[in-house]
Design goal:
Layout: H1 2-10, H2 14-22, H3 25-28, E1 38-44, H4 46-49, H5 73-81, E2 85-89, H6 97-101, E3 138-142, H7 145-148, H8 150-161, H9 170-175, H10 179-200, E4 205-209, H11 235-257, E5 263-266, H12 301-319
Parallel strand pairs: 1-2, 1-3, 3-4, 4-5
Helix pairs in contact: 1-12, 5-12, 10-11
Length: about 325
């Protein structure tokens, strides 16, 4: 995290962050906590909230079903920069773009196909954009995969790949024609969301967070029928999912962010390239994690730590004085 510490010094805030460590012990407890300099709202889906056990423990009780975990990137950043940014984290697993913009979402908790969360059903949560106020300084938003239907695609590819022996492209053959329209929907909804966020927080800087590398360029690394990787998805379908689904999803988000003066795209894809589900040092878990717990292709704590590094740098750049 050395990069953001350097930027803090340049912003003239390093002294404020370290003052507590330098003060005599008897004085530290006597001083009231100082208000943070900037109000930050974290919005997004499960890749922001954390959700899986490999991304930490759920820390909110009673549970609302959104499954925010203590090792997800908003919470990692909050522990490092909590005296600088006041965090409001309303990210929620399974959120679509419209759940951020206008829908009251019904969270699903840690439900998996055929196994609903034992605490479900959960009460609806408000549209995430409700957390953005006129005085909000910074918004991070990581969303789009559920609007594209990536989770549904994975499950369909798992189903279609069973018995294929790892060869062919049964998922691509059945579903490829539907992808361009879904990407168009993502772009349209994302544009509308950014406009709504700017309307609600007119002075806020917006960081549009992209998705990390999930599937490697060399899919020969991925072992067919390995439940800790992509299980029954064929190599050919993994290539298709990477090239025609996930990479275009990031490009769509980047393009939408580029149309807004207040928005900046944060690229997590390149930095995580060698840490896919099929790499030895993985930052994204497979269908099950290494402890055989449901993970359903989500970032683990290492993936969130990498995201925190890059997003922290972008946050500090966003609020730095411009010459």
């Amino acid at each position: 995290m050395a990069k953001f510490r350097t930027r803090l010094a340049l912003l003239g805030s390093a002294a404020a962050l370290t003052a507590g460590a330098l003060a005599p012990a008897q004085l530290v407890g006597a001083q009231p906590a100082a208000a943070a300099d900037y109000d930050w709202v974290a919005l997004g889906d499960s890749y922001t909230a954390g959700v899986i056990q490999a991304a930490g423990d759920t820390f909110e009780f009673p549970r609302d079903g959104c499954e925010r975990t203590d090792r997800s990137y908003p919470q990692v950043i909050d522990r490092d920069l909590g005296s600088f940014f006041e965090l409001t984290n309303v990210s929620c697993g399974a959120a679509t773009i419209k759940d951020v913009t206008s829908n009251a979402q019904v969270p699903i908790g840690r439900s998996v196909p055929g196994q609903p969360d034992p605490d479900a059903p959960f009460a609806p949560v408000p549209p995430q954009s409700d957390a953005v106020k006129s005085g909000t300084d910074l918004i991070t938003i990581g969303v789009g995969g559920n609007t594209l239907g990536f989770g549904d695609l994975l499950f369909k590819c798992l189903e279609l790949g069973q018995g294929a022996g790892g060869v062919g492209t049964p998922c691509k053959d059945e579903l490829a024609a539907s992808i361009p329209a879904k990407l168009t929907e993502v772009g349209k909804d994302y544009d509308e969301m950014l406009a709504k966020l700017h309307e609600k927080g007119p002075h806020a800087k917006i960081l549009a967070i992209g998705y990390p590398t999930v599937i490697p360029k060399d899919t020969s690394k991925c072992r067919y029928n390995d439940i800790h990787q992509f299980f029954s998805i064929t190599s050919g379908d993994l290539d298709w999912l990477r090239q025609d689904v996930l990479e275009p999803l990031n490009k769509t988000i980047e393009k939408s962010a580029g149309t807004q003066d207040s928005a900046t795209f944060v690229n997590l894809y390149d930095s995580s390239e060698k840490h896919s589900v099929c790499d030895a040092s993985k930052w994204v878990e497979g269908v099950l994690d290494s402890d055989n717990r449901p993970a359903l292709v989500h970032p683990n704590a290492k993936g969130h730590l990498n995201a925190a590094d890059h997003i922290t740098s972008a946050m500090l750049n966003a609020i730095a004085p411009k010459n």
